[in-house]
Amino acid sequence: MAPAHDTIRLSAAAMAAALAAGEVSSEDLTRAHLARIADVDGDLNAFLHVSEDDALTTARQVDARRAAGEDLPALAGVPVAVKDVVVTEGMPTTAGSRILEGWVPPYDATLVTKLREAGLPILGKTNMDEFAMGSSTETSAYGPTRNPWDRDRIPGGSGGGSAAAVAAFEAPLAIGTDTGGSIRQPGAVTGTVGVKPTYGSISRYGLIAMASSLDQAGPVTRTVEDAALLHELIAGHDPRDSTSLTGGFGSFLDAARSRDVAGLRVGVIEELEGEGFAPEVRARFTESLAALERAGAEIVRVSCPNFRYALGAYYLIMPSEASSNLAKFDGMRYGLRVVPEDHPTAESVMKATRGQGFGAEVKRRILLGTYALSAGYYDAYYGSAQKVRTLVQRDFASAFEKADVLASPTSPTVAFRLGEKTDDPMAMYLNDIATIPANLAGTPGISVPSGLAEDGLPAGIQFLAPALADDRLYRVGGALEALLEDSWGGPLLAQAPDLKGASL
Ligand code: GLN
Protein backbone atom coordinates (compact mmCIF):
# COMPACT_ATOMS: atom_id res chain seq x y z
CA MET A 1 0.00 0.00 0.00
CA ALA A 2 1.24 3.51 -0.85
CA PRO A 3 1.70 5.90 2.06
CA ALA A 4 -1.65 7.63 2.33
CA HIS A 5 -0.09 10.98 3.30
CA ASP A 6 1.25 11.28 -0.26
CA THR A 7 -2.14 10.49 -1.70
CA ILE A 8 -3.79 13.56 -0.15
CA ARG A 9 -2.07 15.70 -2.78
CA LEU A 10 -3.61 13.80 -5.67
CA SER A 11 -6.76 14.81 -7.48
CA ALA A 12 -9.94 13.05 -6.38
CA ALA A 13 -9.98 11.18 -9.69
CA ALA A 14 -6.44 9.91 -9.04
CA MET A 15 -7.42 8.95 -5.46
CA ALA A 16 -10.37 7.00 -6.85
CA ALA A 17 -8.01 5.19 -9.23
CA ALA A 18 -5.58 4.39 -6.38
CA LEU A 19 -8.47 3.03 -4.31
CA ALA A 20 -9.76 0.92 -7.19
CA ALA A 21 -6.26 -0.47 -7.82
CA GLY A 22 -5.94 -1.41 -4.15
CA GLU A 23 -2.95 0.91 -3.70
CA VAL A 24 -4.55 2.61 -0.72
CA SER A 25 -7.57 1.87 1.47
CA SER A 26 -10.33 4.40 2.06
CA GLU A 27 -9.67 4.11 5.79
CA ASP A 28 -6.00 5.10 5.35
CA LEU A 29 -6.90 7.87 2.92
CA THR A 30 -9.53 9.21 5.31
CA ARG A 31 -7.14 9.01 8.26
CA ALA A 32 -4.50 10.88 6.25
CA HIS A 33 -6.98 13.71 5.64
CA LEU A 34 -8.03 13.75 9.29
CA ALA A 35 -4.34 14.00 10.24
CA ARG A 36 -3.87 16.88 7.81
CA ILE A 37 -6.89 18.65 9.33
CA ALA A 38 -5.47 18.11 12.84
CA ASP A 39 -2.17 19.53 11.63
CA VAL A 40 -3.24 22.68 9.81
CA ASP A 41 -6.81 23.55 10.73
CA GLY A 42 -5.91 25.18 14.02
CA ASP A 43 -4.47 27.94 11.85
CA LEU A 44 -6.94 27.87 8.98
CA ASN A 45 -10.28 27.33 10.77
CA ALA A 46 -11.79 25.84 7.62
CA PHE A 47 -13.79 23.29 9.63
CA LEU A 48 -16.51 24.01 12.18
CA HIS A 49 -16.96 20.33 12.93
CA VAL A 50 -14.80 17.30 12.12
CA SER A 51 -16.81 14.09 11.93
CA GLU A 52 -14.05 11.56 12.43
CA ASP A 53 -16.19 8.60 13.52
CA ASP A 54 -18.76 9.10 10.79
CA ALA A 55 -16.06 9.40 8.12
CA LEU A 56 -14.13 6.33 9.29
CA THR A 57 -17.29 4.24 9.50
CA THR A 58 -18.10 5.03 5.87
CA ALA A 59 -14.49 4.41 4.84
CA ARG A 60 -14.42 0.98 6.45
CA GLN A 61 -17.74 0.04 4.86
CA VAL A 62 -16.41 1.00 1.43
CA ASP A 63 -13.22 -0.97 2.00
CA ALA A 64 -15.27 -4.02 3.00
CA ARG A 65 -17.54 -3.70 -0.04
CA ARG A 66 -14.53 -3.37 -2.30
CA ALA A 67 -12.88 -6.39 -0.69
CA ALA A 68 -16.09 -8.33 -1.35
CA GLY A 69 -15.72 -7.53 -5.05
CA GLU A 70 -18.64 -5.12 -5.28
CA ASP A 71 -18.87 -2.71 -8.19
CA LEU A 72 -18.63 0.70 -6.51
CA PRO A 73 -19.52 4.24 -7.66
CA ALA A 74 -16.66 6.29 -9.17
CA LEU A 75 -15.83 8.34 -6.06
CA ALA A 76 -16.48 5.62 -3.45
CA GLY A 77 -14.00 5.97 -0.62
CA VAL A 78 -12.83 9.50 -1.55
CA PRO A 79 -13.50 11.89 1.36
CA VAL A 80 -15.55 15.06 1.04
CA ALA A 81 -16.23 18.14 3.20
CA VAL A 82 -19.65 19.79 3.34
CA LYS A 83 -20.46 23.48 3.83
CA ASP A 84 -22.22 24.01 7.13
CA VAL A 85 -25.37 25.39 5.48
CA VAL A 86 -26.22 21.86 4.32
CA VAL A 87 -27.99 19.74 6.94
CA THR A 88 -26.37 16.49 8.04
CA GLU A 89 -28.04 13.92 10.25
CA GLY A 90 -26.18 13.50 13.52
CA MET A 91 -23.65 16.24 12.73
CA PRO A 92 -24.05 19.76 14.09
CA THR A 93 -25.20 22.26 11.48
CA THR A 94 -24.92 25.96 12.28
CA ALA A 95 -24.78 27.84 8.96
CA GLY A 96 -22.03 29.83 10.67
CA SER A 97 -24.56 31.33 13.11
CA ARG A 98 -24.86 31.41 16.88
CA ILE A 99 -28.59 31.04 16.51
CA LEU A 100 -28.15 27.41 15.40
CA GLU A 101 -25.42 26.56 17.89
CA GLY A 102 -25.94 23.07 19.23
CA TRP A 103 -28.55 22.07 16.64
CA VAL A 104 -28.10 18.53 15.35
CA PRO A 105 -30.42 17.94 12.39
CA PRO A 106 -32.53 14.78 12.39
CA TYR A 107 -32.16 14.27 8.63
CA ASP A 108 -29.75 14.55 5.71
CA ALA A 109 -30.03 16.93 2.76
CA THR A 110 -30.69 15.01 -0.45
CA LEU A 111 -27.21 15.77 -1.72
CA VAL A 112 -25.73 14.39 1.51
CA THR A 113 -27.78 11.22 1.08
CA LYS A 114 -26.28 10.92 -2.41
CA LEU A 115 -22.75 11.38 -1.04
CA ARG A 116 -23.36 8.74 1.61
CA GLU A 117 -24.95 6.28 -0.82
CA ALA A 118 -21.98 6.68 -3.16
CA GLY A 119 -19.62 5.86 -0.26
CA LEU A 120 -17.89 9.23 0.24
CA PRO A 121 -16.64 9.61 3.83
CA ILE A 122 -17.82 12.99 5.14
CA LEU A 123 -14.88 14.64 6.91
CA GLY A 124 -16.93 17.40 8.49
CA LYS A 125 -18.67 20.73 8.09
CA THR A 126 -16.91 23.77 6.69
CA ASN A 127 -16.88 27.35 7.92
CA MET A 128 -18.83 30.05 6.13
CA ASP A 129 -20.18 33.55 6.44
CA GLU A 130 -23.23 33.55 8.71
CA PHE A 131 -26.19 32.20 6.71
CA ALA A 132 -23.95 32.56 3.61
CA MET A 133 -24.08 36.36 3.78
CA GLY A 134 -20.65 37.70 2.93
CA SER A 135 -17.69 37.46 0.59
CA SER A 136 -14.90 36.75 3.06
CA THR A 137 -16.06 34.21 5.71
CA GLU A 138 -15.53 36.97 8.27
CA THR A 139 -19.19 37.15 9.30
CA SER A 140 -19.01 33.59 10.65
CA ALA A 141 -19.91 33.55 14.35
CA TYR A 142 -17.06 31.06 14.80
CA GLY A 143 -14.16 33.20 13.60
CA PRO A 144 -12.86 33.70 10.07
CA THR A 145 -11.22 31.08 7.89
CA ARG A 146 -7.75 32.01 6.68
CA ASN A 147 -6.50 31.72 3.13
CA PRO A 148 -3.86 28.95 2.89
CA TRP A 149 -1.87 31.08 0.41
CA ASP A 150 -1.49 33.87 2.97
CA ARG A 151 -2.99 33.45 6.40
CA ASP A 152 -3.52 37.19 6.84
CA ARG A 153 -5.93 37.13 3.91
CA ILE A 154 -9.54 36.08 3.42
CA PRO A 155 -10.38 32.82 1.61
CA GLY A 156 -13.39 34.40 -0.10
CA GLY A 157 -16.95 33.85 0.94
CA SER A 158 -19.38 32.79 1.85
CA GLY A 159 -17.89 29.34 1.28
CA GLY A 160 -14.35 30.17 2.38
CA GLY A 161 -14.13 27.07 4.55
CA SER A 162 -14.81 24.66 1.67
CA ALA A 163 -12.35 26.44 -0.65
CA ALA A 164 -9.59 26.70 1.98
CA ALA A 165 -10.02 23.03 2.95
CA VAL A 166 -9.62 21.93 -0.68
CA ALA A 167 -6.71 24.31 -1.35
CA ALA A 168 -4.86 23.16 1.79
CA PHE A 169 -5.29 19.44 1.02
CA GLU A 170 -7.55 18.92 4.03
CA ALA A 171 -10.19 17.54 1.65
CA PRO A 172 -10.01 16.66 -2.04
CA LEU A 173 -13.64 17.56 -2.61
CA ALA A 174 -16.11 19.91 -0.96
CA ILE A 175 -19.68 21.02 -1.34
CA GLY A 176 -20.43 24.73 -1.54
CA THR A 177 -23.49 26.86 -2.17
CA ASP A 178 -23.71 29.85 -4.48
CA THR A 179 -26.40 32.49 -4.11
CA GLY A 180 -24.36 35.38 -5.49
CA GLY A 181 -20.91 33.88 -6.02
CA SER A 182 -20.10 31.92 -2.87
CA ILE A 183 -18.66 28.94 -4.72
CA ARG A 184 -16.91 30.77 -7.57
CA GLN A 185 -15.33 33.72 -5.73
CA PRO A 186 -13.70 31.58 -2.98
CA GLY A 187 -12.49 29.30 -5.79
CA ALA A 188 -10.85 32.24 -7.54
CA VAL A 189 -9.01 33.58 -4.49
CA THR A 190 -7.75 30.18 -3.29
CA GLY A 191 -6.63 28.76 -6.65
CA THR A 192 -9.35 26.09 -6.72
CA VAL A 193 -12.20 25.18 -9.07
CA GLY A 194 -15.80 26.08 -8.19
CA VAL A 195 -18.99 25.38 -10.10
CA LYS A 196 -22.40 26.97 -9.68
CA PRO A 197 -24.73 24.59 -11.54
CA THR A 198 -27.93 25.52 -13.37
CA TYR A 199 -30.59 26.61 -10.87
CA GLY A 200 -32.76 23.62 -9.99
CA SER A 201 -30.33 20.97 -11.22
CA ILE A 202 -29.14 19.96 -7.75
CA SER A 203 -31.68 19.36 -5.01
CA ARG A 204 -31.94 22.11 -2.44
CA TYR A 205 -33.81 19.86 0.01
CA GLY A 206 -31.88 20.18 3.24
CA LEU A 207 -30.07 23.39 2.31
CA ILE A 208 -30.74 26.10 4.87
CA ALA A 209 -32.32 28.64 2.54
CA MET A 210 -30.75 32.07 2.14
CA ALA A 211 -32.52 33.39 -0.96
CA SER A 212 -34.58 30.59 -2.43
CA SER A 213 -34.80 31.91 -5.98
CA LEU A 214 -30.99 32.18 -6.18
CA ASP A 215 -29.48 29.40 -4.03
CA GLN A 216 -27.69 26.51 -5.69
CA ALA A 217 -25.25 23.91 -4.32
CA GLY A 218 -22.21 22.79 -6.28
CA PRO A 219 -18.71 21.31 -6.28
CA VAL A 220 -15.46 22.82 -4.95
CA THR A 221 -12.40 20.89 -6.13
CA ARG A 222 -8.78 21.16 -7.26
CA THR A 223 -9.39 20.06 -10.85
CA VAL A 224 -12.13 20.51 -13.45
CA GLU A 225 -12.41 16.75 -13.88
CA ASP A 226 -13.02 16.32 -10.13
CA ALA A 227 -15.76 18.96 -10.27
CA ALA A 228 -17.42 17.04 -13.11
CA LEU A 229 -17.30 13.80 -11.12
CA LEU A 230 -18.81 15.39 -8.01
CA HIS A 231 -21.38 17.34 -10.03
CA GLU A 232 -22.60 14.19 -11.80
CA LEU A 233 -22.95 12.51 -8.42
CA ILE A 234 -25.10 15.17 -6.76
CA ALA A 235 -27.21 16.31 -9.74
CA GLY A 236 -30.65 15.02 -10.55
CA HIS A 237 -34.34 15.42 -9.95
CA ASP A 238 -35.66 15.34 -6.39
CA PRO A 239 -39.40 15.28 -5.74
CA ARG A 240 -38.69 16.85 -2.33
CA ASP A 241 -37.53 20.11 -3.97
CA SER A 242 -40.28 21.87 -5.90
CA THR A 243 -37.70 23.83 -7.93
CA SER A 244 -35.90 20.65 -8.98
CA LEU A 245 -35.55 20.12 -12.73
CA THR A 246 -36.07 16.82 -14.46
CA GLY A 247 -33.02 15.61 -16.36
CA GLY A 248 -31.60 17.07 -19.53
CA PHE A 249 -28.05 17.26 -18.23
CA GLY A 250 -25.15 16.40 -20.53
CA SER A 251 -22.13 14.32 -19.53
CA PHE A 252 -19.87 16.59 -17.53
CA LEU A 253 -17.02 14.13 -17.27
CA ASP A 254 -16.74 13.58 -21.03
CA ALA A 255 -16.80 17.34 -21.54
CA ALA A 256 -14.13 17.93 -18.88
CA ARG A 257 -11.87 15.38 -20.53
CA SER A 258 -12.48 16.43 -24.13
CA ARG A 259 -9.83 19.19 -24.16
CA ASP A 260 -11.49 20.41 -27.35
CA VAL A 261 -12.37 24.06 -27.81
CA ALA A 262 -12.04 24.18 -31.60
CA GLY A 263 -14.74 26.46 -32.92
CA LEU A 264 -16.10 27.29 -29.46
CA ARG A 265 -17.26 30.91 -29.36
CA VAL A 266 -16.14 32.58 -26.12
CA GLY A 267 -17.85 35.92 -25.50
CA VAL A 268 -15.96 38.49 -23.44
CA ILE A 269 -18.46 40.54 -21.43
CA GLU A 270 -17.46 44.14 -22.07
CA GLU A 271 -19.06 45.39 -18.87
CA LEU A 272 -17.03 42.99 -16.71
CA GLU A 273 -13.41 43.46 -17.61
CA GLY A 274 -12.48 47.09 -17.27
CA GLU A 275 -12.81 49.56 -14.43
CA GLY A 276 -12.56 48.13 -10.92
CA PHE A 277 -10.68 44.97 -11.97
CA ALA A 278 -7.08 44.78 -10.75
CA PRO A 279 -4.44 45.06 -13.51
CA GLU A 280 -2.85 41.66 -12.96
CA VAL A 281 -6.24 39.95 -12.63
CA ARG A 282 -7.09 41.44 -16.03
CA ALA A 283 -3.71 40.40 -17.44
CA ARG A 284 -4.26 36.75 -16.40
CA PHE A 285 -7.75 36.94 -17.91
CA THR A 286 -6.43 38.22 -21.24
CA GLU A 287 -3.70 35.56 -21.31
CA SER A 288 -6.26 32.83 -20.63
CA LEU A 289 -8.35 34.02 -23.57
CA ALA A 290 -5.26 34.08 -25.77
CA ALA A 291 -4.47 30.47 -24.80
CA LEU A 292 -8.00 29.42 -25.72
CA GLU A 293 -7.75 31.27 -29.01
CA ARG A 294 -4.50 29.49 -29.88
CA ALA A 295 -6.30 26.21 -29.19
CA GLY A 296 -8.96 27.07 -31.76
CA ALA A 297 -11.61 28.97 -29.80
CA GLU A 298 -13.10 32.07 -31.31
CA ILE A 299 -13.05 35.10 -29.01
CA VAL A 300 -15.93 37.52 -29.58
CA ARG A 301 -17.07 40.58 -27.67
CA VAL A 302 -20.53 40.82 -26.18
CA SER A 303 -22.30 43.60 -24.35
CA CYS A 304 -24.62 43.04 -21.40
CA PRO A 305 -25.63 46.62 -20.58
CA ASN A 306 -28.02 45.73 -17.77
CA PHE A 307 -25.35 43.88 -15.78
CA ARG A 308 -24.47 47.24 -14.25
CA TYR A 309 -27.78 47.11 -12.35
CA ALA A 310 -27.41 43.47 -11.33
CA LEU A 311 -25.56 44.11 -8.06
CA GLY A 312 -28.20 46.60 -6.91
CA ALA A 313 -31.03 44.25 -7.85
CA TYR A 314 -29.36 41.32 -6.09
CA TYR A 315 -28.92 43.28 -2.86
CA LEU A 316 -32.67 43.93 -2.83
CA ILE A 317 -33.92 40.48 -3.91
CA MET A 318 -31.48 38.53 -1.73
CA PRO A 319 -32.26 40.38 1.54
CA SER A 320 -35.99 40.32 0.76
CA GLU A 321 -36.02 36.55 0.43
CA ALA A 322 -33.63 36.11 3.37
CA SER A 323 -35.77 38.28 5.66
CA SER A 324 -38.63 35.87 5.06
CA ASN A 325 -36.54 32.67 5.17
CA LEU A 326 -34.88 33.62 8.45
CA ALA A 327 -38.18 34.30 10.23
CA LYS A 328 -38.22 30.67 11.38
CA PHE A 329 -35.22 31.18 13.68
CA ASP A 330 -37.23 32.35 16.64
CA GLY A 331 -35.79 30.53 19.65
CA MET A 332 -38.73 28.12 19.67
CA ARG A 333 -37.70 25.44 17.22
CA TYR A 334 -33.96 25.17 16.63
CA GLY A 335 -30.68 25.83 18.43
CA LEU A 336 -30.25 28.85 20.65
CA ARG A 337 -33.01 30.04 22.99
CA VAL A 338 -32.47 33.13 25.11
CA VAL A 339 -35.06 33.52 27.88
CA PRO A 340 -35.07 36.97 29.50
CA GLU A 341 -35.39 36.55 33.28
CA ASP A 342 -37.60 39.51 33.97
CA HIS A 343 -40.29 38.99 31.34
CA PRO A 344 -40.25 35.56 29.69
CA THR A 345 -43.04 35.78 27.08
CA ALA A 346 -42.97 34.17 23.65
CA GLU A 347 -42.33 37.57 22.09
CA SER A 348 -39.51 38.51 24.46
CA VAL A 349 -37.86 35.11 23.94
CA MET A 350 -37.95 35.61 20.15
CA LYS A 351 -36.61 39.13 20.47
CA ALA A 352 -33.79 38.18 22.82
CA THR A 353 -32.89 35.07 20.80
CA ARG A 354 -32.79 36.90 17.49
CA GLY A 355 -31.03 39.87 19.09
CA GLN A 356 -28.23 37.71 20.46
CA GLY A 357 -28.28 34.89 17.92
CA PHE A 358 -27.86 36.89 14.71
CA GLY A 359 -24.72 38.83 13.82
CA ALA A 360 -24.58 42.36 12.43
CA GLU A 361 -24.56 41.46 8.71
CA VAL A 362 -27.56 39.17 9.05
CA LYS A 363 -29.46 41.87 10.93
CA ARG A 364 -28.54 44.40 8.26
CA ARG A 365 -29.99 42.16 5.56
CA ILE A 366 -33.15 41.37 7.50
CA LEU A 367 -33.71 45.11 7.92
CA LEU A 368 -32.95 45.82 4.25
CA GLY A 369 -35.23 43.03 3.08
CA THR A 370 -38.10 43.90 5.38
CA TYR A 371 -37.89 47.51 4.22
CA ALA A 372 -37.77 46.56 0.53
CA LEU A 373 -40.87 44.40 0.96
CA SER A 374 -42.86 46.88 3.06
CA ALA A 375 -46.20 48.11 1.66
CA GLY A 376 -45.16 51.61 0.61
CA TYR A 377 -41.84 50.60 -0.94
CA TYR A 378 -42.49 47.19 -2.49
CA ASP A 379 -42.90 48.43 -6.08
CA ALA A 380 -40.04 50.91 -5.89
CA TYR A 381 -37.52 48.42 -4.52
CA TYR A 382 -38.46 44.76 -4.80
CA GLY A 383 -40.60 45.32 -7.91
CA SER A 384 -37.88 47.29 -9.71
CA ALA A 385 -35.28 44.70 -8.78
CA GLN A 386 -37.40 41.95 -10.33
CA LYS A 387 -37.62 44.00 -13.54
CA VAL A 388 -33.83 44.31 -13.60
CA ARG A 389 -33.66 40.56 -13.16
CA THR A 390 -35.68 40.12 -16.36
CA LEU A 391 -33.40 42.57 -18.19
CA VAL A 392 -30.32 40.64 -17.05
CA GLN A 393 -31.90 37.44 -18.36
CA ARG A 394 -32.52 39.15 -21.70
CA ASP A 395 -28.91 40.33 -21.86
CA PHE A 396 -27.81 36.73 -21.38
CA ALA A 397 -30.19 35.52 -24.07
CA SER A 398 -28.86 37.95 -26.67
CA ALA A 399 -25.22 37.34 -25.65
CA PHE A 400 -25.72 33.59 -26.08
CA GLU A 401 -26.82 34.21 -29.67
CA LYS A 402 -23.27 35.41 -30.39
CA ALA A 403 -21.29 33.12 -28.07
CA ASP A 404 -21.44 29.55 -26.72
CA VAL A 405 -19.96 30.59 -23.36
CA LEU A 406 -19.28 33.98 -21.80
CA ALA A 407 -16.15 34.92 -19.86
CA SER A 408 -14.99 37.44 -17.26
CA PRO A 409 -12.57 37.54 -14.35
CA THR A 410 -14.34 35.78 -11.46
CA SER A 411 -13.50 38.36 -8.84
CA PRO A 412 -12.19 41.91 -9.32
CA THR A 413 -9.14 41.40 -7.09
CA VAL A 414 -7.03 38.72 -5.43
CA ALA A 415 -7.72 37.85 -1.78
CA PHE A 416 -7.79 40.99 0.37
CA ARG A 417 -6.56 41.24 3.95
CA LEU A 418 -8.65 40.09 6.89
CA GLY A 419 -10.50 43.09 8.29
CA GLU A 420 -9.87 45.22 5.21
CA LYS A 421 -13.52 45.48 4.17
CA THR A 422 -15.47 44.52 7.28
CA ASP A 423 -16.46 48.12 8.02
CA ASP A 424 -17.48 48.92 4.47
CA PRO A 425 -20.43 46.79 3.29
CA MET A 426 -20.46 48.41 -0.17
CA ALA A 427 -16.81 47.49 -0.76
CA MET A 428 -17.61 43.94 0.36
CA TYR A 429 -20.67 43.68 -1.90
CA LEU A 430 -18.66 44.87 -4.93
CA ASN A 431 -16.69 41.61 -4.84
CA ASP A 432 -19.74 39.93 -6.32
CA ILE A 433 -20.06 42.19 -9.35
CA ALA A 434 -19.11 39.48 -11.86
CA THR A 435 -20.72 36.48 -10.20
CA ILE A 436 -24.21 37.80 -9.42
CA PRO A 437 -25.69 37.99 -12.96
CA ALA A 438 -25.65 34.18 -13.30
CA ASN A 439 -27.61 33.80 -10.06
CA LEU A 440 -30.21 36.32 -11.19
CA ALA A 441 -30.60 34.41 -14.46
CA GLY A 442 -30.40 30.89 -12.99
CA THR A 443 -27.61 30.05 -15.42
CA PRO A 444 -24.48 28.01 -14.61
CA GLY A 445 -20.91 29.23 -14.06
CA ILE A 446 -17.46 27.86 -13.33
CA SER A 447 -14.35 29.52 -11.93
CA VAL A 448 -10.95 28.05 -12.80
CA PRO A 449 -7.52 29.38 -11.81
CA SER A 450 -6.09 31.84 -14.35
CA GLY A 451 -2.69 32.30 -12.70
CA LEU A 452 -0.96 34.35 -10.04
CA ALA A 453 -1.78 38.04 -9.90
CA GLU A 454 -1.16 40.88 -7.39
CA ASP A 455 1.11 39.88 -4.48
CA GLY A 456 1.66 36.44 -6.02
CA LEU A 457 -1.89 35.37 -5.16
CA PRO A 458 -4.27 33.33 -7.32
CA ALA A 459 -6.85 34.83 -9.66
CA GLY A 460 -9.74 33.11 -11.41
CA ILE A 461 -11.50 33.24 -14.75
CA GLN A 462 -15.22 32.63 -14.88
CA PHE A 463 -17.14 31.00 -17.72
CA LEU A 464 -20.92 31.23 -17.97
CA ALA A 465 -23.25 29.09 -20.09
CA PRO A 466 -26.96 28.97 -20.88
CA ALA A 467 -29.25 27.08 -18.48
CA LEU A 468 -28.70 23.31 -18.69
CA ALA A 469 -25.55 23.74 -20.79
CA ASP A 470 -23.27 23.13 -17.80
CA ASP A 471 -21.33 20.66 -19.96
CA ARG A 472 -19.93 23.62 -21.95
CA LEU A 473 -18.36 24.94 -18.75
CA TYR A 474 -16.54 21.66 -18.27
CA ARG A 475 -15.41 21.63 -21.88
CA VAL A 476 -13.89 25.11 -21.81
CA GLY A 477 -12.74 24.88 -18.17
CA GLY A 478 -11.01 21.52 -18.67
CA ALA A 479 -9.30 22.70 -21.83
CA LEU A 480 -8.07 25.95 -20.28
CA GLU A 481 -6.82 24.16 -17.17
CA ALA A 482 -4.74 21.79 -19.32
CA LEU A 483 -3.35 24.64 -21.46
CA LEU A 484 -2.39 26.77 -18.45
CA GLU A 485 -0.93 23.88 -16.46
CA ASP A 486 1.29 23.09 -19.43
CA SER A 487 2.61 26.65 -19.32
CA TRP A 488 3.02 26.61 -15.51
CA GLY A 489 4.60 23.15 -15.48
CA GLY A 490 1.91 21.77 -13.15
CA PRO A 491 -1.10 22.79 -11.08
CA LEU A 492 -1.24 26.33 -9.70
CA LEU A 493 -1.54 24.97 -6.16
CA ALA A 494 1.93 23.49 -6.49
CA GLN A 495 3.15 27.09 -6.39
CA ALA A 496 1.45 27.85 -3.07
CA PRO A 497 3.76 28.70 -0.19
CA ASP A 498 4.39 26.22 2.60
CA LEU A 499 1.78 25.74 5.24
CA LYS A 500 3.16 24.83 8.66
CA GLY A 501 6.34 23.57 7.10
CA ALA A 502 4.41 21.09 4.97
CA SER A 503 4.54 21.93 1.30
CA LEU A 504 1.10 22.64 -0.07
N1 GLN B 1 -21.32 37.56 -1.30
C1 GLN B 1 -22.71 37.38 -1.65
C2 GLN B 1 -23.58 37.83 -0.52
O1 GLN B 1 -23.08 38.20 0.50
C3 GLN B 1 -22.96 35.99 -2.09
C4 GLN B 1 -23.31 35.04 -1.03
C5 GLN B 1 -23.58 33.66 -1.49
O2 GLN B 1 -23.41 33.33 -2.67
N2 GLN B 1 -24.05 32.84 -0.58
O3 GLN B 1 -24.77 37.84 -0.64
Automatic annotation (TrEMBL):
Species for this entry: Brachybacterium huguangmaarense
Domain Amidase: start-end pairs: 28-473
EC nos: 6.3.5.7
Record note on quaternary structure: Heterotrimer of A, B and C subunits.
Record's keyword annotation contains Cytoplasm: no
Protein name: Glutamyl-tRNA(Gln) amidotransferase subunit A
Active site as annotated: K83 (charge relay system), S158 (charge relay system), S182 (acyl-ester intermediate)
Enzyme class per UniProt: ligase
Pfam families in UniProt: Amidase
Function: Allows the formation of correctly charged Gln-tRNA(Gln) through the transamidation of misacylated Glu-tRNA(Gln) in organisms which lack glutaminyl-tRNA synthetase. The reaction takes place in the presence of glutamine and ATP through an activated gamma-phospho-Glu-tRNA(Gln).
Family the UniProt entry places it in: Belongs to the amidase family. GatA subfamily.
Annotated stretches, region: Disordered: 135-161
Catalytic activity field: L-glutamyl-tRNA(Gln) + L-glutamine + ATP + H2O = L-glutaminyl-tRNA(Gln) + L-glutamate + ADP + phosphate + H(+)
Keyword set, alphabetical order: ATP-binding, Ligase, Nucleotide-binding, Protein biosynthesis
Domain of life assignment: Bacteria
Database matches in InterPro entries: Amidase, Amidase_CS, Amidase_dom, AS_sf, GatA
Gene expressing this chain: gatA
Keyword ATP-binding: yes
